[in-house]
């Protein structure tokens, strides 16, 4: 307790400066720019990396205030090197953001994403996906279906063609039909809708992947390694249906198993949402009494 008091006493007192109209405008503009950046990042895979950076900065602040010299030395040196590393890691996202600003599409994409929060797949959607997979398996039609979970896939969606349609087995079958314009690439499903098609996925460079698996399966494993997405793959060679998540693949799925996997995934998503909504209600209740 004495250590904490001593650390707090070392923080210099900052008085209230004279704030004018220009200062208020300056603060509002900076706050708005920060909001835009955060809103854009939240719709990409960069959000998970950003949360990691925030945690490191929080640890650095705590180490500095509490005078934890060894921890501060480690974290400060990590931040110095990490600044350059972040530019390398975020290079594709930074380039894409600059391109969108140049085309004037950044604000439009942000506004279109406001209020998009789904409760997961409906029973009709699960039935439609299962029916489509079984049909494509029967006729050996290659398919790659990515179901978004907690990690946003906005940057992956932008590589394809936006559809924004209700989920149906007929539409999925038609998308992946051979020699059609949309058959090449992945379909992204989010908020209980088919969001985009012909999307490009990052290929996994793992050496443990079986040589029997082609580019479609390697792409499915690749997106599952960098996100928490659930991916369904239908093989064009033998019609085998596979499920990929967290870099692991399960092959030889049938209709019942597909339904169980989709239902279990969406049940977890709905429970997480209810837990979050419950916390919001509790917090609002506390604020009212206070």
From TrEMBL:
<feature type="transmembrane region" description="Helical">
    <location>
        <begin position="20"/>
        <end position="41"/>
    </location>
</feature>
<keyword id="KW-0812">Transmembrane</keyword>
<dbReference type="Pfam" id="PF02457">
    <property type="entry name" value="DAC"/>
</dbReference>
<keyword id="KW-0472">Membrane</keyword>
<dbReference type="GO" id="GO:0004016">
    <property type="term" value="F:adenylate cyclase activity"/>
</dbReference>
<dbReference type="InterPro" id="IPR034701">
    <property type="entry name" value="CdaA"/>
</dbReference>
<keyword id="KW-0548">Nucleotidyltransferase</keyword>
<protein>
    <recommendedName>
        <fullName>Diadenylate cyclase</fullName>
        <ecNumber>2.7.7.85</ecNumber>
    </recommendedName>
</protein>
<dbReference type="GO" id="GO:0106408">
    <property type="term" value="F:diadenylate cyclase activity"/>
</dbReference>
<feature type="transmembrane region" description="Helical">
    <location>
        <begin position="72"/>
        <end position="90"/>
    </location>
</feature>
<dbReference type="Pfam" id="PF19293">
    <property type="entry name" value="CdaA_N"/>
</dbReference>
<comment type="similarity">
    <text>Belongs to the adenylate cyclase family. DacA/CdaA subfamily.</text>
</comment>
<feature type="region of interest" description="Disordered">
    <location>
        <begin position="269"/>
        <end position="290"/>
    </location>
</feature>
<keyword id="KW-0547">Nucleotide-binding</keyword>
<dbReference type="InterPro" id="IPR014046">
    <property type="entry name" value="C-di-AMP_synthase"/>
</dbReference>
<dbReference type="GO" id="GO:0005524">
    <property type="term" value="F:ATP binding"/>
</dbReference>
<feature type="transmembrane region" description="Helical">
    <location>
        <begin position="48"/>
        <end position="66"/>
    </location>
</feature>
<dbReference type="InterPro" id="IPR045585">
    <property type="entry name" value="CdaA_N"/>
</dbReference>
<keyword id="KW-0067">ATP-binding</keyword>
<keyword id="KW-0808">Transferase</keyword>
<keyword id="KW-1133">Transmembrane helix</keyword>
<feature type="domain" description="DAC">
    <location>
        <begin position="91"/>
        <end position="255"/>
    </location>
</feature>
<dbReference type="InterPro" id="IPR003390">
    <property type="entry name" value="DNA_integrity_scan_DisA_N"/>
</dbReference>
<dbReference type="InterPro" id="IPR036888">
    <property type="entry name" value="DNA_integrity_DisA_N_sf"/>
</dbReference>
<dbReference type="GO" id="GO:0006171">
    <property type="term" value="P:cAMP biosynthetic process"/>
</dbReference>
<dbReference type="InterPro" id="IPR050338">
    <property type="entry name" value="DisA"/>
</dbReference>
<comment type="subunit">
    <text>Probably a homodimer.</text>
</comment>
<keyword id="KW-1003">Cell membrane</keyword>
<comment type="function">
    <text>Catalyzes the condensation of 2 ATP molecules into cyclic di-AMP (c-di-AMP), a second messenger used to regulate differing processes in different bacteria.</text>
</comment>
């Amino acid at each position: 307790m004495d250590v904490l008091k001593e650390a707090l006493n070392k923080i210099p007192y900052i008085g209230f400066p004279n704030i004018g109209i220009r200062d208020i405008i300056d603060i509002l503009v900076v706050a708005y720019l920060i909001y835009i950046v955060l809103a854009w990042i939240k719709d990409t895979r960069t959000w998970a990396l950003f949360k990691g950076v925030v945690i490191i900065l929080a640890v650095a602040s705590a180490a500095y205030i509490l005078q934890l010299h060894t921890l501060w030395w480690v974290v400060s040196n990590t931040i110095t090197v990490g600044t350059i590393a972040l530019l390398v890691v975020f290079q594709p996202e930074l380039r894409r953001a600059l391109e969108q600003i140049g085309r004037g599409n950044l604000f439009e994409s942000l506004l279109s994403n406001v209020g998009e929060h789904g409760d997961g797949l409906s029973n009709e959607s699960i039935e439609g996906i299962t029916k489509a997979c079984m049909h494509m398996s029967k006729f050996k039609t290659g398919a790659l279906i990515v179901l978004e979970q907690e990690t946003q896939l906005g940057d992956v969606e932008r590589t394809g063609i936006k559809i924004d349609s209700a989920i149906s087995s007929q539409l999925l079958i038609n998308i992946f039909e051979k020699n059609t314009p949309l058959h090449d690439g992945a379909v992204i499903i989010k908020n209980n809708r088919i969001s985009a098609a012909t999307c490009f996925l990052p290929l996994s460079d793992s050496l443990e992947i079986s040589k029997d698996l082609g580019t479609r399966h390697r792409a499915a494993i690749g997106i599952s390694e960098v996100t928490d997405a659930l991916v369904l793959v239908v093989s064009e060679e033998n019609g085998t249906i596979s499920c990929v998540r967290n870099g692991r693949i399960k092959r030889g799925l049938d209709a019942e198993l597909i339904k169980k996997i989709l239902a279990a995934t969406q049940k977890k998503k709905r429970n997480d949402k209810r837990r979050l909504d419950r916390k919001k209600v509790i917090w609002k209740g506390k604020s009212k009494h206070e």
